[in-house]
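Handout, section B. The chain below has 537 residues.
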Amino acid sequence: MLQNDALSYPYASQRMTTYAQNGMVATSQPLAAQAGLDILKKGGNAIDAAIATAACLTVVEPTSNGIGGDAFALVWTKGKLHGLNSSGPSPTSISIDKVKERGLEEIPKFGWVPVTVPGAPAAWVELSEKFGKLPLTEVLQPAIDYAQNGYPLSPILSFYWEQAFKGYSNNLKGDEFKHWFETFAPDGRAPKAGELWKSEGHANTLRLIAETKGEAFYQGELADKIDEFSKKYDGFLTKEDLAAFKPEWVDPISVSYRGYDVWEIPPNGQGLVALMALNIAKGFEFSERDTVETFHKQIEAMKLAFGDGLKYITEADKMSVQTEELLSVEYAEARRQLITDEALTPTAGEPPRGGTVYLATADNEGNMVSFIQSNYMGFGSGLVVPGTGIALQNRGHNFSLDENHDNRLEPGKRTFHTIIPGFLTKGDQPVGPFGVMGGFMQPQGHMQVVMNAIDFKLNPQAALDAPRWQWMEGKTVQLEHTVPNHIAQSLARMGHKVEVAHNPGGFGRGQIIWRDPKTGVLAGGTESRTDGAIAAW
């Protein structure tokens, strides 16, 4: 099994790696993890458990995801890894000219302009139909129950809910936003830790999705309600956009890293950034984790990868370069040569031409799932479809209004996407799912977790607990306050603009499940920076 002894990392929380044999669910909310485990115990498989957990997370962690968001999944089953891209495109009626006609010079964060087609409900249905064992009505029942009857907020959830309420109170002034406040601040404020919150509209929506296998959302009464709401406030999204949407099964992409294969979903997701960074880093030797040389080379590799990612990543067939070119050994070597002892300002190269939730599940049949879904920027656009609990995402904010940019806004196009599930294999055997959610922190978290596990031989919990860094822009890098001070000072002397952050929330929230190929024993780690939990048996 990919880990060392059971000792925690020196700067870690007091959690230890969790071991089990029959099944495991790791995610950021205890209630959602338990819901997934309950489905396993009822005879469901890891895919059923992932769907149940994901649906439950829309209820018990609405600060990060919702029914109106997108989803991606990597599924290991019967000896093969499958990729699902269920990110929705922009409306077919939108265009750069139409946005600029509204007096906008960039895609806003809130309102109808950044709303894209929600893909999450379709992901649940697609996974259930292709790989699930239990009916969707049974799998979604835990989420329906929590939405119908309510649940008490956990501490970190309540913190982010309060932050969102304050931000939305300051920024969301139009009549179209009143439904968000009615749904998520029914008493005129954010609910506090330990207080009950429920949404009967959310429960009814989940019930309709389950009973109709998603048809109500994309072609039926829920689609009609979304369409009516959009038309009322001059939105671009229509019921025709919803009806046309279908998730896409894709071939995962990978790089070989020190004897392991690291897998991601191909563009339009930013998983390519994590793979490019690892491709650059594998040309170096890392003997210790907590040295300035390790931090510097990791950061520089990530900056170079992001330089390319932010320029080139968009919907795959709209990219001006191919994924294979960006992941070539030759290109990684050329980028690696740019790394010196001084911090660089990242730019894109020219390759040779040729506030998200994450969960991991595993069962005793060998199935494993890496799943992620998000509304983007916390609750998303600030729009909630009246009476439904559907908080619509604002994923379109990532589009560029520059006609010459690869990720320029176009009708019916999928934008650069931040949410990415990860998976690790060795030879033809699965090691397991991993992920770190949190906007542009995600590929940075993937790189650090993979290196913690492989280069520095940390067990799953220690790999997650270890102090993190995050490249922000230019030469600016944030370090968690638990990073040793001498490293921060040395990085500053190398030209990095170092910021020390005391709030761990900006450094992502991750989960890991590894499987021992000999015994089948599962080893799981969950995030100490949130209300993370592992449910296992």
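Note. The chain has two domains: 18-245+366-398, 250-354+420-536. Compare this with the example in section A.
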